[in-house]
Design goal:
The complex is a heterodimer of chains A (251) and B (150). Chain A has 251 residues and is mainly α. Chain A has one domain (2-245): Ferritin. Chain A is built from eleven helices and no strands. In chain A, helix 6 packs antiparallel against helix 7. The longest helix of chain A has 29 residues, at 34-62. In chain A, 48% of the residues are buried. The model of chain A has no long low-confidence stretch (mean pLDDT 96). Chain B has 150 residues and is an alpha/beta fold. Helix content of chain B is 26%, strand content 23%. Chain B has four helices and seven strands; from the N terminus they run H-H-E-E-H-E-H-E-E-E-E. Chain B has helices at residues 4-13, 25-28, 53-68, 91-99, and strands at residues 31-37, 40-45, 75-78, 102-103, 120-124, 132-137, 143-147. In chain B, the strands form two sheets. Chain B has a four-stranded mixed beta sheet. A three-stranded mixed beta sheet of chain B has the order 1-2-3. The longest helix of chain B has 16 residues, at 53-68. Chain B is elongated. In chain B, 39% of the residues are buried. The mean pLDDT of chain B is 93. Classes of the chains: A mainly alpha (251), B alpha/beta (150). Chain A binds chain B through residues 35-36, 38-39, 41-43, 45-50, 52-53, 120-121, 123-125, 127-132, 135, 138-139, and chain B through 47, 49-52, 79-85, 123-128, 130, 134, 148, 150.
Chain lengths: 251, 150
């Protein structure tokens, strides 16, 4: 039972990294300037690396012989357990960086804590991811400030991105029996623990940026349980096309 | 008399990085463990960045180097913990990196690998590989890459 739960937990974290990585990779060749194109691609690559490790871990714990490729390419929308936040479309650069910042501020608080997990494999992955996330959040926070505190146009775009994405951030702190049971065993980090640390990172950046979170929006959730927005299906149609059309193809 | 493990470590550590060929796996501090386990040789490598394609290539190259040195049954494994840090890069590696035109991952002020000037600025926090950032020198006006501290 513990293994099925650990598999589900690793899959959730792996799906977050995988789907966000794919979203960022959609920017390659379209970045607003060369340096940012490279930055987005590098961040996508780090997340893809994290996703591979986490999905491989999930597959091993699941014990059904599925490797990271089988899990990435062989599941349908309902089987993905990523946060709704990471599957939301890129929109403009401001929207992408707001999404990235809301996620990075969570990742940078999650990974150092998970590196103390009693599950050695998860702890090892988390220890690596922690260093990468620290670098990512500096970049996304800097852009949120630069755009929020920039021109009238950039401010309006960043605020629109925040208005759109803020309701999805609440799902980060939701827990069901997967996180709750594993947190009691010292394997997972209870998402509720992260909320105040996430706020302590997000609020000063938004304040410096002159951006205001919308009020009374509620929480958009369901991704962890496989209830996704319409966007994930379209993303997977592109992401999985090659393996669906030519199963098992290698090159 | 050199032991089997010492000889295998020498072979593994001599494997060059595919992206930055002046550095070897040894310079980068990637070879964590070389030991005999029940008559079979086990080599544990640590990856640098989670998604760096060079890690995969280095693992294959280490296997090939060991095989060509007679260690055909060697097992090359990846170990994630403790996580790799640029603090494990050797001093010789840092010197070679600077001579190659890449500012080494030294914590503290960055200087230009071409002219040594301390008047430098960061252009982009990311670069052509996950491990590097783009900088330029205000002294000699040359752009250069910096190996990021991780």
């Amino acid at each position: 039972m513990a293994d099925a739960l650990t598999a589900a937990y690793a899959l959730r974290l792996g799906d977050d990294a995988l789907i966000l990585s794919h979203r960022l990779s959609e920017w390659v060749g379209h970045g607003p300037e060369l340096e940012e194109d490279i930055a987005l691609a590098n961040t996508a690559l780090d997340l893809l690396g994290q996703a591979r490790l986490l999905l491989a871990c999930a597959g091993a714990r699941e014990g059904r012989g599925r490797d990271e490729d089988a899990l990435a390419y062989g599941r349908d929308v309902l089987d993905f357990s990523n946060l709704l936040l990471v599957e939301q479309p890129n929109g403009d650069f401001a929207q992408t960086m707001v999404r990235q910042f809301l996620f990075d501020a969570y990742a940078v608080e999650l990974w150092p804590r998970l590196s103390a997990s009693r599950d050695e494999a998860l702890a090892g992955i988390a220890g690596k991811a922690a260093r990468e996330a620290a670098y990512h959040v500096e970049q996304s926070a800097a852009w949120v400030v630069r755009m929020g505190d920039g021109t009238e146009e950039s401010h309006a775009r960043a605020q629109a991105g925040l208005d759109l994405l803020w309701p999805y951030a609440g799902e980060i702190f939701e827990a069901d029996e997967v996180e709750t049971t594993l947190a009691e065993k010292g394997i997972a980090v209870a998402p509720s623990v992260l909320r105040e640390h996430w706020q302590a990172r997000v609020e000063p950046v938004l304040e410096e940026a002159g951006l205001v979170p919308p009020e009374g929006t509620g929480v958009r959730k369901g991704g962890r349980q496989g209830r996704h927005s319409e966007h994930l299906g379209h993303l997977l149609a592109e992401f999985q096309f090659m393996q669906r059309a030519y199963p098992g193809a290698e090159w | 008399m050199v032991s089997r493990a010492e000889e295998a470590r020498r072979l593994a550590e001599a494997v060059p990085d595919p992206e930055i060929p002046v550095l070897t796996a040894g310079d980068l501090g990637l070879v964590r463990v070389v030991e005999e386990d029940g008559g079979r040789l086990v080599v544990r490598l640590t990856p640098t960045y989670s998604g760096c394609p060079a890690s995969e290539a280095i693992r294959r190259d280490v296997e090939a180097a060991l095989a060509s040195g007679g260690f055909t049954d060697a097992i090359v494994e990846t170990s994630l913990a403790p996580a790799w840090t640029t603090d494990w890069m050797s001093e010789a590696g840092k010197t070679k990196l600077a001579a190659y035109g890449i500012a080494p991952p030294v914590r503290g002020p960055v200087s230009c690998p071409h002219c040594g000037s301390a008047a430098v600025e960061e252009l982009s926090r990311f670069g052509s590989t996950p491990c590097k950032a783009l900088w330029r020198c205000l002294g000699c006006r040359e752009p250069f890459e910096r190996f990021k501290c991780l």
